[in-house]
Amino acid sequence: MSSDTGTGLDRAPMFDLAYERIVIGAMMDNPAVIDMVATKVTAEDFYSHRHASVFTEICNAHADGQITEPHAMTARLLDAGTLGQLGGIDFLHQCYAEVPVAVQAGHYADRIAELAERRAWEAKGVQIVQAANQPAGRDLGALAEKLLTEVKPRGQSNDMVQLGALIQPAVADIKLRRHVPAGLPTGFADLDALLGGLRKKNLITVAAPTGAGKSIFLTDLARNLALRNSLVVAYFSLEMSNEEVFERILSAEAEIPAHLVRDGLVSEEKWAEASTVIGPMASAPLFMCDETDITVQQIKVRCQILQRRVGLDAVIVDYTQLVTPSRKFSSEQEGISDVSKSLKKMAGSLDVPVIAAAQMNKGPDLRADKYPQLTDLRGSGSIANDSNIVIFVHRPDYYDPESPRSGEADLVVRKARNAAKDAVTVAAQLHYSRFADMRAI
Fold first, then answer.
1. 127 plus 183 within the same structural domain
2. Residues 203, 214: Cα–Cα separation, whole Å
3. Has residue 166 been placed in a domain?
4. Residue 229 forms part of a structural domain
5. Are residues 278 and 379 both part of a single domain?
6. Is 430 a member of any domain?
7. Peptide bond just before 319 cis, omega within 30 deg
8. CA distances from 301 to 186, 234, 293, 298, 304 (A)
9. Residue 155 lies in a domain
10. Which of 123, 198, 208, 393 could disulfide-link to 183, CB 3.0 to 4.6 Å?
11. Final residue in a domain of this structure, among 109, 135, 150
12. CATH code of the domain in which 65 resides
């Protein structure tokens, strides 16, 4: 490669230093182009670190309301003590002199962005090749998906949208909701009426004390979405094996007591009856993963693969406190916060609702009123902050076996953006590993 254009005899150019100098020169020549150029490229897009530094200084000077012509930039860099290492006044004048027409700076900026994207793809390709040459044991498919999705394709605009541009599609969507629920159905009519269903890009947290039924509630959601509505669901169970999840779904669908399924005591007669539900289960678009040591990034990669192959409508994670943080943290609270924020970002990136279970602390045990509060979420207040919706599964008979409300559960909505905060009562049919609408029993 030559030092200036990055061309070689056997490959496309990967950088163009002359174009980078022209853009810098145009920004010094005509401040009116600075904002336009800044919408097309960032400092990271420049191949030369020197060019990137000067670009940043020009943008900062412009933001400060200062003059950006060469003499003014020379003084600014001199005051910062970086003029010499960036090439001195001669370099700035060289950039200024190479500008053909300043108003064409957008064309040169587009080229810089294009070459930066090429370099990003090449770098990811090199990483994939290097991984392929390592000893076996790595999931190369997942790694390749992860690496390639880290490159943002050129042309994905981040431009701001004027309100008027939203009117036509938004009104059409609002009218459609008169006939179709805004979000995905939970399978609980009163809860759907309260929330408007499970909305795209939302993080929905389902919390309960250990053993109170949060995992059962999540399998209810999975059953309804995948079996009743043929929606594609990715279910990540970090606490139970895939086989245990299947057993719970079978118990709920076939109305076979869970302990009989668990212990292999189902009679031949019951198995014959169960065959009517096993058929639909076989074709349900419910995809499960019971890997225990998994990060949100790894969950996201598996979801992206599924989304490309068959589509994706919802993600269920059981549960937040068991997901591995992206790195080591000094406290459990910081780790949980990292996971919670990442789940929220994943919901937006995948454009689907993400439903995640969460454990509760011992707060209700210390109160006469056992009704759950947001402060009862274990480990981090960020779970409440990051969630669009927080639902607690509250069973009166969990705390008092003699409760007159034995066999009932309240789905307590403590946080709901764009929805009411209230509670709905459902039947707790835990012997069948399910909850059910009160009106359906």
1. no
2. 16
3. no
4. yes
5. yes
6. yes
7. yes
8. 25, 12, 15, 5, 5
9. no
10. 198
11. 150
12. 1.10.860.10
pTM of the model: 0.64
Tokens of 411: 């789905």
Whether residue 129 sits in one domain with residue 189: no
> pLDDT tens string for the chain (441 positions)?
344 656 454 566 688 899 999 999 999 988 888 888 887 888 889 999 999 999 989 988 887 888 888 889 999 998 888 888 888 888 988 898 888 876 788 889 999 988 988 888 888 888 888 888 877 656 677 777 677 666 665 544 445 566 667 667 666 666 655 555 568 888 888 888 888 889 999 999 999 888 888 899 999 999 899 888 889 999 998 888 888 888 888 888 887 887 787 777 777 777 777 777 777 788 888 898 888 888 888 888 888 888 888 889 999 998 888 888 877 888 888 888 888 888 998 999 899 999 999 888 877 777 888 888 888 887 667 888 888 899 999 888 888 888 888 888 889 998 887 666 688 888 888 888 888 887 766
In the chain, the number of structural domains is 2
Show the tokens assigned to 141.
């498919």
Q: Find the CATH number of the domain harbouring 281.
A: 3.40.50.300
Same domain? For 359 and 400 the reply is yes
